[in-house]
Amino acid sequence: MTVVRTSLRNFVAHKGRMILSGLAVLISVAFVCGTLVFTSTMQATFDRLFTESASNVMVGPAQEEGEGGFDDVSLTGRPDTVPASAAEQIRGVEGVAEVTGVVASESIVAVDSDNENIGPTTGAPTVGVGWTELELRTAEVARGTAPAGPGEVMVDSATADNKNLEIGEELRVISVTGDHSLTITGIVDFTITNPGAAILYFEPSAAQQILLGADDAYTELAVDAAPGVGDAELKERVAAALGTEDYQIRTADEYIEDNRSEIAGVFDFLQYVLLGFAGISLLVGIFLIVNTFTMLVAQRTREIGLMRAIGASRKQVYRSVLIEALLLGVVGSVLGFAAGLGIAVGLMALMGALGMNLSTDDLTIGVSVPVIGMVVGVTVTLLAAWLPARRAARVTPMDALREAGNPGDVRAGRLRTIVGLAMLVLGLGALVAAGGASSAGTGGMWLALGVTLTLIGLVLSAPALVGLVLRALSAVLLRGFGSIGRMAERNALRNPRRTGATASALMIGLALVAGLSVVGTSMVASATEEIDESLGADYIIQTANWMPILPEAAEAVRSADHLSSVVAVSEVEATLTTADDASFDQNLGLTTPGYPEMMDTPVVAGDMSEALRAGGIALPADLAEEHGLAVGDQLTLDIEDSSGPVTVTLRAISEAPSFDAPGAFLGEETAASVLEPEQMPLPWGMFALAEPGQADQARASLESALEAHPQMEVRDQADYKELIQQQVGQLLYMVYGLLALAIIVAILGVINTLALAVVERTQEIGLMRAIGLGRSQLRKMVRLESVVIALFGTVLGVALGLAWGGAAQQLLALEGMEVLAIPWVTIIAVFLGAAIVGRLAAVLPARRAARMNILQAIATE
């Protein structure tokens, strides 16, 4: 009990310092718990949506392995269907109470009276649905009435609110069947959740005509069982009546599980990413806690000596420090769990802003969440405190009383430096091996090894680098401040281990920022070079949300004036069989012989234009080599859903695939010979060449022709480069935002280190004040010390990040990212930001140092 009381007394006595360390635990645990609660809530919400909407048995078109799913979009713009006759067959099955035909499609565009696309700007689709009793399970008519005829439609309330839509307003709906004018008759509220899409509800028969172009088909059949009939039993009866060759027949549980599996990958990815950043902040927090307890132990050396002198054992001293850490971990974890709930609610609000309304009433807090938070927080804190506790226990009573420290620390420091430098050298070697790897798999393993070894190696050897790097920084930054700058430099150099640990915490976050910046900048530079070298088209035409281009929009592009050539590119899924009867599945870019004029795809053999004529095909070199194919070889081509196989001749072998296409190509004429017109895939993009000297006129004509299709975007080469830069930039900004969590924890470490250092140097500060050092000079000294420590961490982090990013770029060069670009603007911004961070981190410690009473400070032992 004496040990416990001592630990409690020390914990309370140093509560200010513990608060900063506790914040590191709190932030990290909060992010872990918030992530778990948020993803669990999303999963539970969608589970409820699937459960409420599912009938006892669901019948859909047959799906091949890995096909279909919650967010599947048809390449033809027409979803797969089941015939209406199947509904009549099912109605005759014993035990069936009701059969509801479902019609739904994502291949539509809705335009309001101001010619504005009412679809989401977040990338979510616009979905057309037939309004049936089935929809009332998850939604209700909040205002107006349900559609009663082909010219009427309802919209979901979120879309109505976002786009200022009112009952009676006219909408144009563009689909594969044409342009349709409808009037809004009602507004629909979701009783569970709005999945983020813009949803339009049509009268059932109108939905068939607008979305499918047929009145004798549905996308799905929902079968409700009569009382007393089980789902499995009903499934067997329905399967017996229909057969299973052309249908996918599932019970409600199977339907729910399939849909859950489809979105589980998205949720899992999101959870792993968020937990990964939480893990980084935990790693950074370890440095903070190690530093805190190391300095507290050092400051209590005399107290520890007295405890040992009066009979306290090493084990008791060891336990005393660990009990303080346990208290810190418990308090930080409990508060972190509470803060995590706030983070989860905040993430839900963010999703609401993006269109997916999640209710806090559905907040799902599993029993495991607080347990995981507590285990993570306490374990990390105890691990971080283990070394300081062990060091405290190993100090002998006599050494402690005369504050000599442990002579073994010097030997341990040398050994740590040697091990660290060895690991750093090995890690750099692994990064070089990653950059020179011949395959992505091998290179990836070398890269992972190199990142791990260099990180650990630099952390271990950081104290040894303090003298060299800090003196160089001081020569540039501090010497101009005279004696104040020299004192700041001396203070930063005083304890290399402490300075190294503090800087290492900042180094980790900044290394990731620098490394990802190199990759992102290189990606943009590589794509820009690819566009300059390969793109011959003057204009690229695509939809804003990367959906297929609908037929009317494609015809509008072709009708534009001042164009010498227009080419569309789509995609088909096919099976190819060689003369040796070896078969393989391949996605084929589908286009016309004019494509090489728009996009230069280098070939190693043959002619690309010939490959795009009737009976030809082009394959990438690696695929041709894998199957022993050469120009002139014949293959059997079987396009999915075609009338049958056809023989094609390999007329071109291309180099590695470019950024825009799969690398394998087929001519439209060949596909059209085995596919019905409605089976031809819609283009994902179109390319256009302007007539000589008519570039501006051609663009104006394109934009005028597409005025009725606001979902379409016309870009020239400069616009396309800017689009790529924006997309990569948005991704990097999101990553930087998440990494800010780790950097905040690192800043807390700088504050904590400075605050403890000020306490440690209380007597020294009093003496300096007594001989004439002013308050403002003292504050400046602490601020300069903080800035130089922050910049030291920045130097290490940027150097490490550049090494990581360079190795990653060399590895990604195997996939076409061949340009290495250094983001100098980002690096300069990082250094300026580090200086500002160091300046801000010193505010409280500097203020405390300046406010010390001179006599009390001198009298401090």
Describe this structure in words.
One of its GO terms (molecular function) is transmembrane transporter activity. Residues 20-240, 499-704 form the MacB-like periplasmic core domain. This is Putative ABC transport system permease protein. With 861 residues, the protein is an alpha+beta fold. It has four domains: 1-55 and 271-406, no CATH class; 63-245, no CATH class; 465-538 and 717-861, no CATH class; 539-715, no CATH class. The strands form four sheets. Strands 4, 5, 6, 7, 8, 9, 10 and 11 form an eight-stranded mixed β-sheet that branches. It has a six-stranded mixed beta barrel with strand order 16-17-22-19-21-20. Strands 3-13-1-14 form a four-stranded antiparallel β-sheet. Strand 9 and strand 10 (178-190) form a beta hairpin. Helix 2 (15-53) packs across helix 9 (314-353), helix 9 (314-353) packs antiparallel against helix 10 (368-394) and helix 12 (408-435) crosses helix 13 (440-477). The protein is globular and about 95 Å long. The two termini are 29 Å apart. The model is unreliable at 66-72 and 403-408 (pLDDT under 50).
Describe the structure concisely for a colleague.
With about 850 residues, the protein is α+β, with helices and mostly antiparallel strands.
Query: Which range does the strand content fall in?
Result: 15-25%
Number of individual domains: 4
Question: Based on DSSP secondary structure assignment, what is the total number of beta strands?
Answer: 24
Q: Describe the sheet with the most strands.
A: 8 strands, mixed
Coarse morphology: globular
- Radius of gyration, whole Å: 34 Å
Name the poorly predicted regions. Answer: 66-72, 403-408
Distance between the ends: 29 Å
Estimate the helix proportion, in percent. 55-70%
Total helical segments: 27
- Give me the secondary-structure category: alpha+beta
Mean of the pLDDT scores? 84
